[in-house]
Amino acid sequence: MHHIHGTYNFPLVILSVFISIFASYASLNIIDRVVLKQGRSRFLWILFGSCVEGLGIWSMHFVGMLAFHLTFEVTYDPWLLVLSMILPVCAAFIAMQFVSRENVTHFQTVLGGLFMGIIPGCSQ
Questions:
Q1: Residue 68: strand pairing partners
Q2: What is the pTM of this model?
Q3: What is the domain count for the chain?
Q4: 65-4-13 Cα angle (round to 5)
Q5: Which residues form the domain of 35?
């Protein structure tokens, strides 16, 4: 059995954490605005918020991957890279649809959390 050894660039790991915190904070602020909107304006706020949260998730993961240095060259497939950016945005959009309603049930909160946890995790 072969083991792959690598090292971490800790400043990039810390940057990854800050990206996650900032994206979460920004998307929660956007959710506050979504609750007050209706119609097309509401849809646009949800779309914008899902882009902020989804790309924040993606950025956190990608910076985290860049922080891990291996002893061999690592390359990324551009199409899979783009797909890995789209999936978290879609998951965030679905989750924001659930949690931005006026009366959110516990089931809707759990369902929104599942979309945020499962779909982006599959894209990495």
A1: 8
A2: 0.77
A3: 1
A4: 25
A5: 7-123
Conformation bin of residue 38: beta by default, left when phi > 0, alpha when psi is -120 to 50? beta
Residue 107 lies in a domain: yes
Contact 91, 54 (CB under 8 A): yes
Domain-embedded: residue 1: no
Give the sign of the dihedral formed by CA 85, CA 88, CA 89, CA 90. positive
Each residue's pLDDT tens digit, 98-119: 777 777 788 877 877 776 666 5
Cα 51 to Cα 36: distance, rounded to the nearest angstrom: 19
Query: How is 41-75 classified by DSSP, letter by letter?
Result: HHHHHHHHHHHHHHHHHHHHHHHHHHHEEESS---
With a CB cutoff of 8 Å and minimum separation 6, the contacts of 49 are 27, 30, 31, 34, 92, 96
* Tokens describing residue 100: 């931005």
